[in-house]
Amino acid sequence: xxxxxxxxxxxxxxxxxxxxxxxxxxxxxxxxxxxxxxxxxxxxxxxxxxxxxxxxxxxxxxxxxxxxxxxxxxxxxxxxxxxxxxxxxxxxxxxxxxxxxxxxxxxxxxxxxxxxxxxxxxxxxxxxxxxxxxxxxxxxxxxxxxxxxxxxxxxxxxxxxxxxxxxxxxxxxxxxxxxxxxxxxxxxxxxxxxxxxxxxxxxxxxxxxxxxxxxxxxxxxxxxxxxxxxxxxxxxxxxxxxxxxxx
Length: 247
Ligand code: NDP
Prior knowledge:
Strand order of the largest sheet: 3-2-1-4-5-6-7
Number of domains: 1
Mean pLDDT: 97
CATH class: Alpha Beta
Shape: globular
CATH superfamily: NAD(P)-binding Rossmann-like Domain
Bound molecules: NADPH dihydro-nicotinamide-adenine-dinucleotide phosphate
Largest sheet: 7 strands, parallel
Radius of gyration: 17 Å
Helix content: 40-55%
Number of strands: 7
Order of helices and strands: EHEHEHEHEHHEHHE
Strand content: 15-25%
Oligomer: single chain
Low-confidence stretches: none
Structural class: alpha/beta
Number of helices: 8
């Protein structure tokens, strides 16, 4: 498997799952644009880890929820590199709360980042990918988008929205050589899950047939498969990487 010569953009590439995705794409030869919103030090750490390993990467700040920032960033990327081959829509946040107590802002923030961000970034690369007649869009959804979760109605709605979006855009872009797929992680050890209490983590672990939480690298493996030529006939699909917790 080689991604040599490919230009890849990973939203939320500064930390967690996004960082592992950046590292795996770069290890296969892609030049990786590491997006972040507010954490330049973490983005720099991702970039440096790739460069130390002999790969190519650069950091790029933009907020996936803000159309103007995205348009400006993708224009710069395409001007500099001439193309975008791979887009991984990975940036995501949680603002948990039970329905009765959920504020509009919690809903809006999560939907704007986790769902609208996917729409805006995909739209921003679609023209370039159509011209190239080659592209890979990989959207990171969640087991929660398929199974639901009390206290995460906003997050589940956004992640389920990604499923419908992915399938629709896969149909629109298939004839142009562009595949659009998703990866649905289960519970993965990152900053997003680090604040769960030991008690909650035990409950989750008991729901996972494999008995352990996943690692960011487990998700990266599925992403690089979907980005590769091995997956050229796969579109509109989701790979569930969850230790068997949801089948
Ligand atoms: P982290 O909290 O560890 O990292 C989140 C990343 O998203 C950071 O790089 C952050 O950038 C970036 N980000 C957040 N908001 C924005 C924004 N508005 N614009 C651009 N970048 C932004 O999350 P994970 O690595 O755990 O999660 C990655 C993806 O995987 C998310 O979509 C999440 O929903 C999904 N997922 C995670 C699971 C888990 O168990 N961890 C399970 C299922 C799905 P910065 O560093 O600048 O803050």
